Amino acid sequence: MSAYSVDLDGREIEFTLKRSRRRTIGFTISRDGLAVAAPMRASDREIRRALVTKSGWILSKLDAWAARPAAPDLVLESGASLPWLGGELTLDLRGEGVRTTVRREGDLLILKHDPDLAGELRTRTLTKALQRFYKREGEVLMAPKVEAYASQLGRPVRKVIVRDQKRRWGSCASDATIRLNWRLMGFPEELVDYVCAHEAAHLVEPNHSPAYWRVVESLMPDWKPRRQRMRDEADRWVVF
User: Fold this and answer.
1) Burial 15-31 (b: 16+ CB within 10 A, else e)
2) Please, what sign has the CA dihedral across residues 108, 109, 114, 119?
3) CA 122 to the chain's CA centroid
4) Do 132 and 107 share a domain, yes or no?
5) Same-domain status, 51 and 94
6) pTM, entire model
7) Does residue 76 lie within any of the structural domains?
8) What gap in Å lies between CA 86 and CA 226, rounded to an integer?
């Protein structure tokens, strides 16, 4: 998949382009921005002409996504709430010792830190500690889910990586490595399941063709309402 840009009504719009054996040029607008799927034989000129033809629709959809609320600011104070699997964890900061550690006790997230930390160093240290916690717990929860879906499809997974991704919820590389956004740990588990199934299905079909969605449906018959909920409500559970 390659990255390009095009001028639409005086605005420089970036997009990704993926070619396949499909017959028509298609567009997808999401949190990830504009994605173009095109036939192998489609010329760059044909693709750009199609983009210009659909410029009104494309720009309105991109603007709608841009208007969605950003991730909430992280409040590094005891009593602050953090999204967790559709619910919340309450942050409990404790200035104890010199090591920064995070552990969960029920609905409480206990973060111990050096009491002498201050200013930007404190913010950076505590934020990174929380991200490590979400990533670690994300690997524990999501890797087995992906592997189970892949097993249903009879396809191997090379590796499941949970990492920081600003725009994508997940991706599946050609080498069968699946990457997932640690922020998914703020989402209800049924939506986490959807993303895991969505990426596992790409082990069979690398694009979003009708054949791909049939694979998704074989894993998750009710994928459509889950996808719609992701589109409509995802920002409610985004973690800083």
Assistant:
1) bebbbeebeebbbebeb
2) negative
3) 27
4) yes
5) no
6) 0.75
7) no
8) 14
Residue 155: domain span: 138-237
Check whether residue 105 and residue 55 sit in a common domain: no
> Residue 213: which CATH number?
3.30.2010.10
Instruction: Of 161, 162, 202, give the one whose Cα is nearest residue 183.
Output: 162
Cα 45 from Cα 23, distance rounded (Å): 16
Q: What is the pLDDT along the chain (240 residues), one digit of tens a residue?
A: 667 899 999 999 999 998 988 899 999 887 778 999 999 999 999 999 999 999 999 999 999 888 776 667 789 999 999 999 999 999 999 999 889 999 999 999 999 999 999 999 999 999 999 999 999 999 999 999 999 999 999 999 999 999 998 768 999 999 999 999 999 999 999 999 999 999 999 999 998 889 999 999 999 999 999 999 988 888 788 878
